[in-house]
Every structure is written in structure tokens, then in C-alpha cells.
């Protein structure tokens, strides 16, 4: 695996066919030359059109043996840029569709940065709003609303620009069409 996803995340997954290609892909990621874009839906209002979040992340294991991450000054540097795509108010609940640009690749980075800011990802069973998730599950949103939409990088062997894209899965696309129009495509 050259670029992996959390089990709950959909979208582009990148595999290298050789050790040489894998080493070069990892170098692209370390150097920050890979363009990684995700689409996510958060519970809450996001006011800024573009916002840089630089909050260090620390991994730990709970007493139950579950792997978790939190924002901690002693953690590893993590940088995410969020671009507001669209917002909507449904009754008492606001939702915002965001694009996340990863400049580092820490475990649960997008999920923890957003939860830390008070706007958890819809469907997040680790860091989210559990009561809201149960209510949305009854309406068809039954999983983490996080999708790796695009990866852009230079081919590890010939250096040519490569852009891989993955459309939103049907359930996410339907939710976006019903609430935001064509924004989620």
C-alpha cells in the first residue's frame, strides 16, 4: 500500500507494483508533493472559505485496547487545509460539506482535527456526535462521511503527472444531491 485509508473511509487507494515505486511514493508523501483531497460532511457550521489547521496529533491506546488519537502539544505535527464547499441548515442541525487537503498523513488526522474544532464528521463512530449519528442512520447515512476524492502526484518511475479521482459513493452522492444540489459530485 502506497496510500492507505482508514477502514471506514471510501475512495482512492494507491498500490505500488514494485518496492522501488513504493519507496518513491513514500518520498513524495514525506516531501509534501502529493496532492491528497478528501470530501467530508461535518455536523455544524463552517464559516471560513479556507482554513489551515495545524494541530499536533498524539496516538494512544485506550484501556479497552482501542487505538485513538487526540490533539496534544507533544504529538506529531499535522497540517490540514479545509475548503468550505457548501452549508445547509436542516431544522435545528447545520451541516457543512468540506474539502480537506492533507499536507501530512497522520492517523485519523481529518477526523481528529474536525472533532477538536467542534464540528465532527457525520457518521464518525470514534470522535463524532453519537446521538446525531443514530438519528442520521435512520435516514440512510449509516457510515463515516469521509471520501478520498483525489490523489495527484508525479509517477514514481517516469515523473509524469498523475491524477486519480473517485466519485462519491451512491449513498454520499444521494445525501449531497438532496441537501446541496450538485456540489458533492
- Judged by helices, strands and strand pairing, the structural class is alpha+beta
Helix fraction by DSSP (H/I, runs of at least 4): 10-25%
Stretches where pLDDT is under 50 for at least 5 consecutive residues are none
Q: Beta fraction of the residues?
A: 25-35%
Major pleated sheet: 7 strands, mixed
Number of strands: 9
Shape: globular
Q: Could you tell me how far the N terminus lies from the C terminus, measured between alpha carbons in angstroms?
A: 26 Å
How would you portray this structure in words?
The protein is an alpha+beta fold. 22% of the residues lie in helices and 34% in strands. It contains four helices and nine strands, in the order E-H-E-E-E-E-E-E-H-H-E-E-H. The chain has helices spanning 19-31, 109-116, 130-137, 170-180; strands spanning 10-11, 35-43, 50-54, 57-61, 67-71, 79-90, 93-102, 146-154, 161-165. Strands 1, 2, 3, 6, 7, 8 and 9 form a seven-stranded mixed beta sheet that branches. The protein has a two-stranded antiparallel ribbon with strand order 4-5. The radius of gyration is 17 Å and the shape is globular.
